[in-house]
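Field reference: "sequence" (input) and "structure" (output). Example, BMP family ABC transporter substrate-binding protein:
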Amino acid sequence: MRRITRITTVGIASAALALTATACGGKTSSDAGSDGQAKAAIAYDIGGRGDQSFNDAAYAGLKKAEDELNIKGAEAEPSEGEGDADKVQRLTELARSGNNPVIGVGFAYAPAIEKVAKKYPKTTFGLIDDTSKTGPNIANLVFNEEQGSYLAGVAAAKASKTGTVGFIGGVEVPLIKKFEAGFVQGVTDTNPKAKVLKQYLTQPPNFDGFAKPDLGKAAAQGMLDKNADVIYAAAGLAGSGAIEATATAGKWAIGVDSDQYNQKGLAKYKAKILTSVTKDVSDSVFNLIESVKKGKPQSGEVRYGLDKDGVGLANSNPEYQKMTDLIAAVEKAKADIIAGKIKVKTAP
């Protein structure tokens, strides 16, 4: 297996000097490095690799492609306070160096991918969590987050002893409001008397709510002080702070995106991570890379829902596995959503 190449924003300009420029038409799916190996790249969202959540799930897909498809992977990290121009430069260099596909992890890459994809029509671009920008060589990898969050709401309502639970959103944007909507609906459908505390860490254009654990920690502490005993955070790296505060208080935390019970960086708190709402970001990345390698690249909307385990609820914690009433309620809710008996809201 080849080592994944990491490209930081600071180093991207100097890296460009070492790259062989290609025509604006980009490279075809069969193009590869000088050693004949196919290449693929991901550009990380706020928080970068190591967030124990969204970005790490995308990395897992790239790693799987390296292991199983003989892909040479490249990674590009974001920089604090960057704008669309920085993302355009990053994606351009990744495409120019022959990576195909080039995947932007998160909706913040939408404007940049729209621009760069037009310059490299033979390169496939993956855009995770956004359908606002489309094109013949853009694959919009999206998820029914509200469905997984509904199941988390059912679990939270069943696990709570105080009748008060909390939802922490990283940044108040439509995507995260899907998480809120599903969670609140799941809680109230399960226990109409339950109280749901809600807080967003930042408002756009400030995206620190996805990047700073201290913000999540403070928000969770505030909810704990108000008697919440189950807290669900959809906040990227900031969510790790919420997990820390909640677990330290001996209450239940619910993770997001990855199965956070199994994340090494959160091992200290895993006993109190009840479950996690999972998004199969890993397989979405792998599947896109595989489609390009096979010469049949995905394009348009590629949706991952509960019906195909594209979203779900993790059951890694042994304590969760003992909660038979909770599990039964979650399984019934899952079946009813798939059958169309429960319509989950996508906005609060």
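The chain has two domains: 5-143+281-307, 145-279+317-338.
Residues 145-279+317-338 form a domain with the Rossmann fold fold (CATH 3.40.50.2300).
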